[in-house]
Design brief:
5 helices, 73% helix, DUF222, mainly alpha, DUF222 domain-containing protein
């Protein structure tokens, strides 16, 4: 999906469902049988995934910032982010600012 093309709702939902399922399987694993080099490689892979996830988050936040009204959000964007992401308003504001700085689009 890195082509930047528009996808339909079903595709987006299916991809997020697959991501959730993969994360569920991953956190259920027991890594005890692996070696130190294997743990280190997997730790690096965890970091790679961690750094890629905000790209989608930035796109979602920037779409909300550009297109959603305060009425649709139930107030300020940062408050809606805090409510839906189950995080503090301070963290939500940080994410919104990061999305504006690093993501596609402007607030």
């Amino acid at each position: 999906m890195g082509s930047g093309g528009v996808v339909d709702r079903q595709t987006v939902t299916a991809i997020f469902d697959a991501l959730d399922a993969a994360a569920d399987r991953l956190v259920g694993l027991d890594f005890d049988a692996l070696t130190t080099p294997e743990w280190l490689v997997l730790l690096g892979r965890c970091e790679k995934v961690r750094r890629r996830l905000p790209v989608a988050e930035h796109q979602l936040i920037n779409n909300l910032a550009r297109q959603a009204s305060a009425e649709e959000l139930g107030g300020k964007l940062s408050h809606a982010i805090a409510d839906w992401a189950l995080t503090s308003r301070t963290e939500a504001s940080r994410r919104s600012n990061a999305a504006a700085d690093l993501g596609r689009g402007a607030r």
